[in-house]
Design goal:
Largest sheet: 8 strands, mixed
Order of helices and strands: EEEHEEHEHEEEHEHH
Radius of gyration: 16 Å
Distance between the termini: 35 Å
Structural class: alpha/beta
Length: about 200
Amino acid sequence: MGLDNRRDITGVILVGGKSRRMGKDKAFLEFSGKPLFERVLEINRESFHRILLVGDRRERFAGYGLPVLEDIFPGSALGGLYTGLYHAQTEYVFISPCDLPFPNKGVLDHICSLRKGFDAVVPTTRHGFEPLFALYAIKCLEPMRELLESGNYCVYDFYPQVRTRYVPSEELAELDKEGKSFLNINTPEEFARLEKRLSS
């Protein structure tokens, strides 16, 4: 699916995480010679005409020439998702965290290809939903706002209120043969194990 078929989707990368367990900024951890954020940015640049960064870190990301938006509802991934969708000016957004070691363009392409007729397209694995590498329509804004205003920051609690297409891991198996697309690294120990596994 080419860029011209995706003018209705904005790429939104969440950059507001505090990386407390890691002890340093995960977005700029060097992995295979490139910061994690740049690995995610690369597949977004290949996939979307417009990209927004969401999080109160304008100075840290100023060098990339992209809009960096402060959260409308600070302090949660759901708030970041809401902010990106609110400012997107397109019917859909594709959301990504800024710190995936193995962002998978094939998985992204497949999720985007399923959007017609749905308000959310969300991968699922044996661990549950993967709500932060997923696609959302502007129709999700109102149920998201209701959750946020009620103090509920669970990203997926609004799914029953919108037309949600769940994408099971079996459907992604050919695209994600090693099952690494949604791998998330939170501690220095996990990162060290990942680097060791890659070098062995």
